[in-house]
Prior knowledge:
- This protein is mainly beta.
- The protein contains 2 helices and 9 strands.
- The radius of gyration is 15 Å and the shape is globular.
Amino acid sequence: MTLERYREKRKFEKTPEPPPADAKPRSGPLAFCVQRHHATRLHYDLRLEVGGALKSWAVPKGPTLDPGEKRLAMMVEDHPLEYGGFEGVIPKGNYGAGSVMLWDRGTYELLGQGTAEEQLARGDFKFRLTGHKLAGEFAIVRMKRSAKGNEWLLLKKKDAHAAPGWDAEGLAVR
Ligand code: MN
């Protein structure tokens, strides 16, 4: 896990975002968070702790509990663990300028075969979230015909937490 790209994209004297620390592998429950990021385009950032940093995807339509939906998720640079507590306004002229709201946070369990790193390398990462809004089993799968190479699909598995019609913006429209 490297936070070099996170560092390169930001001027820490100009943004309230946490400065990059080194990746800090730790024991105990793994963290996840989702930030609602009203940048040039509104999107939701899904972040999952792997190897002491946060693997991150920008999800334009946001995550959903609807197992019938496939949500496009663009992998972006790893973020430091501290980012999981960040909310605020990134000033104009900075990377990602706009408001960041902590939309959900909690813990996750890795499911599937192999380590987190192996599943990411394979492009098929399976996990179970325990959050306030999001819960249950999900998978995030790399698109084989991705033009940009960073396109994944976020999928909700059918389980007790599945909710057809559920939408992040319309919260629990059924
Ligand atoms: Mn973002």
